[in-house]
Design goal:
It is a multi-pass membrane protein. The chain is mainly α. The chain has one domain (about 1-335). The chain contains 17 helices and two strands. It has helices spanning about 10-25, 25-30, 40-55, 60-65, 65-70, 70-95, 100-120, 125-145, 150-155, 155-190, 195-215, 225-250, 255-260, 265-275, 280-300, 320, 330-335; strands at about 1-5, 310. Helix 1 (about 10-25) packs parallel to helix 14 (about 265-275) and helix 7 runs antiparallel to helix 8 (about 125-145). Residues about 150-155 and about 300-335 have low confidence and may be disordered.
């Protein structure tokens, strides 16, 4: 795909929005297979989806093999995060509910991504990003608090422990989501096309999840419904969604992408209400509106200057997307 340099951040944001909408369906889809454990759901979704990404990008991975091998530590870190993320994410939703689990997991990711970029890449946090992320995380927090209605607050000690454990697992999911997003963005910024970068990280992560799927995945074959849920999770949100996300990471910073993906929390909460039957009070809907509002701040502005077109897969556009100065965070700085 080709895009004008000035339009790249906007297209990147739109790709992340599309991916987030697909991801927002995963929690609701998982509830349609109640007999399947969250570990099996996570393993089949990210494991099979990751292997499909690697297969579809096999040629690109072979062509970029030397460059990928030179950055094997980055690939290994990203793959480990890919393997941990779905296990923590779906376990969080199982323990805390679809809305709360999604909100905590995705809502914590922008902060984690910004901290990773700040301390590893020394990228400054722009005022625009801080305002947008603050609103987005604040809206996500409103959604989370709204998920704990007065009637459920006084539950048993076991229920309180489950909810607390779910929130901690959500924080782990948010951290690992930010980590593999950063690793993929850094690979792309170092000149590895997005298909090869995402395929190598997610393919290796998928391999790491195969033992988990082998141990926990038998219920996926117990019924056509369970099998269909597993197939949907792997093919649509994980395979197609992460291809879109890779295109987005080629155009915007990881912290910007994870912030825009807060939209997933709104999609998940709305579907949890409409399909699963969870109750979302007025405070929750206010939180959803705040998250949506933050997207208008976080979506990068289109630049007026036009430069010669370049392949989108090798064009990180990080300085332009983040509002930083190219002199301080350049292509060579990202690729180290």
């Amino acid at each position: 795909m080709h895009a004008g340099h000035g339009n790249a951040p906007l297209w990147g944001a739109l790709f992340v929005v599309a991916a987030s909408i697909l991801w927002g369906t995963t929690g609701t889809a998982a509830t349609l297979a109640p007999g399947v454990s969250p570990l099996a759901i996570g393993a089949v979704a990210m494991g099979v989806g990751g292997l499909l990404q690697a297969m579809s990008a096999a040629r690109a991975i072979r062509r970029q093999g030397p460059g990928i091998l030179r950055r094997w530590r980055l690939v290994a870190v990203g793959a480990a995060a890919v393997a941990v993320y779905p296990l923590a994410f779906y376990s969080s939703m199982h323990l805390s509910g679809v809305a709360v689990g999604t909100v905590v997991s995705i809502g914590s990711a922008p902060v984690a991504a910004a901290l990773i970029e700040r301390f590893t890449d020394r990228k400054p946090l722009t005022r625009r990003w801080i305002i947008g992320a603050f609103l987005g995380v604040g809206g996500a927090a409103l959604l989370s608090f709204a998920g704990h209605s007065p009637g459920t607050a006084a539950g048993t000690d076991g229920e309180a422990w489950d909810s607390t454990a779910g929130i901690f697992l959500g924080l782990l999911a948010g951290g690992t989501y930010a980590l593999y997003s950063w690793a993929a963005h850094r690979l792309i910024g170092g000149g590895i096309p997005s298909r090869a970068a995402m395929g190598s990280i997610f393919g290796l992560g998928g391999l790491l999840l195969m033992p988990v799927l082998a141990v926990t995945g038998a219920p996926l074959l117990d019924s056509w419904t369970n099998f269909s849920v597993g197939a949907y999770m792997a093919l649509v949100p994980m395979f197609a969604g992460y291809i879109l996300f890779g295109w987005g990471l080629a155009r915007v910073r990881a912290s910007t992408a994870t912030s825009i993906s807060l939209l997933e929390t709104v999609v998940a909460a709305v579907l949890a209400v409409l399909v699963v039957g969870e109750r979302l009070p007025a405070l929750g809907w206010l939180g959803a509106a705040v998250v949506l509002g933050s997207l208008f701040i976080l979506t990068p502005r289109t630049q007026r200057t036009r430069l010669p077109a370049a392949p989108a897969e090798t064009m990180p556009s990080a300085p332009e997307a983040a509002g930083t100065q190219p002199a301080s965070v350049g292509h060579q700085d990202i690729s180290r």
